[in-house]
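Project outcomes to date are best conveyed with an example. Our students and postdoctoral researchers have been running inverse folding experiments weekly, and each run begins with a structure described purely in tokens. The record below, which covers 130 residues, was selected by the lab manager from last quarter's runs and is presented without edits.
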């Protein structure tokens, strides 16, 4: 019985040593925290870039729409000059295709993804320097 108990204790000690070896050291914990902070920082920087892209996208869409409005005004003036501009005579096709392919917005999906991925706890941890 003592031998069984001794064998059991040796196995328990061996298991505990294996568990202890898996536990991270304070230096490893700090290194992981630093990586986490960097990852969160990059995530927020990327969201900021997305916001900048969104602003440019909306400006671009607005310019293309204004260009289309000017083309329509040109058509109306051309009628007064007894000019008929048909088809793609005002070089609108390329720009209309561009407008058609542009998404209405990119930001809302990016913000949704960011919120799901990082959540509020990631933000508070990054602010606190965790």
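After processing, the design step wrote out the following sequence:
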């Amino acid at each position: 019985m003592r031998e069984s108990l001794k064998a059991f204790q040796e196995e328990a000690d061996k298991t505990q040593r294996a568990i202890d070896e898996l536990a991270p050291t304070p230096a490893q914990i700090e290194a992981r925290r630093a990586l986490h902070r960097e990852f969160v920082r990059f995530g927020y920087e990327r969201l900021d870039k997305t916001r900048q892209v969104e602003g440019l996208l909306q400006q671009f869409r607005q310019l293309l729409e204004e260009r289309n409005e000017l083309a329509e005004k040109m058509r109306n003036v051309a009628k007064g000059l007894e000019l008929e501009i048909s088809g793609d005579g005002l070089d609108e096709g390329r720009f209309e295709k561009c407008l058609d392919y542009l998404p209405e917005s990119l930001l809302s999906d990016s913000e949704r993804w960011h919120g799901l991925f990082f959540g509020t706890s990631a933000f508070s941890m990054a602010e606190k320097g965790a």
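Residues 121-130 have pLDDT under 50 and may be disordered. Residues 26-128 form one domain. The training component of this project remains on track.
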